[in-house]
Design brief:
heterodimer; A: 145 residues; mainly alpha; 6 helices; disordered C terminus; B: 254 residues; 12 helices; 0% strand; transmembrane (chain A); transmembrane helix (chain A); membrane (chain A)
Chain lengths: 145, 254
C-alpha cells in the first residue's frame, strides 16, 4: 500500500529528528544536530534492507517516490516564501558578508574535490547496467532534469 | 462574489498553493524550453520566479514570509515550510548510492568544518571592514554569514542588540538566495557534476535552503548528496560560533 511507503519515510524522519535532538542536547546546544541527514541515512539502509529481501513492493515505493518528485515544487514554494525584501534592505554589510561567504565557498569546492578521479566521475558517465538493484537512482529524481 | 472566492482560496490554502506552484513550474519549464532552448534549467527559472514573487510579496505586505504573507497565497508557507521540505529532502535519499556517500564521507566532514570557518571569517572581515569593533557584534554578523539560523541563535546567546541580529539574519538570507541563483551558473566551473563534489558543496555552503534549491536547479540527482552534508552545517555552526569562534574573535580584537 502507498501509505506504507509514506509511513516508512515519516518514521525515518521522526527517528532521525529524535536522534538529532538528543545529539544537540548532549552537546548542550539548542538545535537539532543533523537530524535530517541521519534520517536520510536511515532511509537508505532500511529501504536497501527491505529491497534485498524483496519486501518493498512497487506501491510502497511509490509512496516514497511521490515525495521525492514533489521536492522541486516544494523548493519553489520555499523560495516564494523567503524574506527576500529583508535580505536586500539589510544594507551593504549583510549583502557583502553573504556574497563573500558564497564566493569563497564555491571557490573552495574544486580545491576539496581534488583531481577528477574514478570516484568523482560525472553522474552521466556512470554506466547504468553495472549497478546493483538498490543502486539504480530512483526514477522520479530525474524529473525536471 | 470576489470576497467569497478569496475566502474559499484562503480556507483551502494548501490546495491553492499546489495549483499556484504547478502553474509556476509549467510557465518556468515553458520559458526554459522556448526562450533559453533548455540552457537555463526549468527549475532554476521556477526558483527565480519564486524569489521575485517573494520580493514583491514582502514589499506589498511588509511581512517576513514573502508571497506567503499575501492572504491568497498563505498555503505557500505550509508547502514550502520546514516540515514538508525536510520530508521531501529525506525522500530524495531513496535511490542514493551509499558507496558514494562513504567515499566522500571524510572530505564531506572536512568541508563542513572548513565551510563554517570560511563563512564565519568572511562575515567577520566584512563586519570589521564596516567599523564594528565589539566582539559580540562581529561574532553575530559573522555567524549570520554561516546561516540565517546560526546568526540569531549566536546573537541571542551572546546578548547582541536586535539591530545586529537583524543584520546577521539578512546576511544569511543573502547567502541563501545567492546560492540558489549562483549554483546552477557556476556548477560547470567548479566541477559540480558528481556525488563527491555535491557532498563537498553541501558542506562548504551549508545553508540548507540554498544548497537544496541550488542543486535542484543544477541536477536533481545531486540533491540528496549535497543535502546530506548541508543538514549538519547549521548544527555545527551553532555549536562553534558562540563558543570557540567567539573566543577567537575576542582574542583577536583584544
Amino acid at each position: 500500500m502507498v501509505i506504507y511507503g509514506v509511513a516508512l519515510l515519516a518514521g525515518c524522519m521522526l527517528v532521525g529528528l529524535i536522534i538529532g535532538d538528543v545529539l544537540g542536547q548532549l552537546l548542550g546546544i539548542d538545535a537539532n544536530l543533523g537530524g535530517v541527514g541521519i534520517a536520510m541515512l536511515l532511509l537508505i539502509f532500511v529501504t536497501g534492507y527491505l529491497k534485498d529481501r524483496g519486501k518493498l513492493p512497487e506501491t510502497t515505493e511509490s509512496g516514497i517516490n511521490f515525495w521525492n518528485a514533489m521536492y522541486i515544487p516544494i523548493v519553489v514554494a520555499m523560495a516564494a516564501s523567503q524574506n527576500v525584501a529583508a535580505a536586500f534592505s539589510g544594507g551593504m554589510v549583510a549583502i557583502l558578508a553573504g556574497v563573500l561567504a558564497v564566493a569563497l565557498g564555491l571557490v573552495l569546492v574544486p580545491v576539496l574535490t581534488g583531481k577528477r578521479t574514478e570516484d568523482a566521475r560525472p553522474l552521466d558517465a556512470v554506466p547504468e547496467q553495472g549497478l546493483g538493484k538498490s543502486d539504480v537512482p530512483a526514477g522520479p529524481t530525474r524529473i525536471g532534469h | 462574489m470576489n470576497d467569497s472566492i478569496v475566502s474559499l482560496v484562503d480556507k483551502y490554502h494548501l490546495i491553492a498553493a499546489f495549483a499556484v506552484i504547478g502553474l509556476t513550474m509549467y510557465i518556468a519549464y515553458w520559458l526554459s524550453r522556448h526562450l533559453t532552448a533548455g540552457r537555463l534549467h526549468g527549475s532554476a527559472i521556477a526558483i527565480i520566479i519564486g524569489l521575485i514573487l517573494a520580493y514583491v510579496g514582502g514589499i506589498q505586505t511588509g511581512g517576513e514570509d514573502g508571497l506567503a504573507d499575501v492572504t491568497l497565497f498563505s498555503g505557500l508557507g505550509l508547502m514550502g515550510g520546514g516540515m514538508l521540505r525536510d520530508l521531501a529532502i529525506i525522500a530524495t535519499a531513496y535511490g542514493v548510492r551509499f558507496q558514494e556517500v562513504k567515499k566522500a564521507g571524510l572530505r564531506g566532514v572536512i568541508a563542513l568544518f572548513l565551510g563554517v570557518l570560511v563563512s564565519f571569517v568572511a562575515g567577520a572581515v566584512v563586519a570589521v571592514g564596516f567599523g564594528y569593533t565589539d566582539p559580540v557584534d562581529i561574532t553575530t554578523i559573522a555567524a549570520g554569514a554561516v546561516t540565517y539560523i546560526v546568526g540569531p541563535v549566536t546573537g541571542a546567546t551572546l546578548g547582541a542588540s536586535s539591530e545586529v541580529i537583524a543584520l546577521s539574519i539578512a546576511a544569511g538570507l543573502v547567502k541563501s538566495i545567492l546560492t540558489m541563483i549562483a549554483t546552477p551558473m557556476t556548477a560547470r566551473l567548479i566541477g559540480l557534476d558528481n556525488p563527491r563534489s555535491a557532498m563537498i558543496f553541501g558542506g562548504m555552503i551549508g545553508t540548507t535552503s540554498g544548497v537544496a534549491a541550488g542543486l535542484a536547479a543544477t541536477d536533481a540527482r545531486l540533491v540528496p548528496y549535497g543535502a546530506m552534508t548541508a543538514t549538519f552545517y547549521t548544527g555545527l555552526g551553532i555549536l562553534l560560533a558562540p563558543t570557540v569562534l567567539f573566543l577567537i574573535v575576542r582574542g583577536v580584537m583584544g
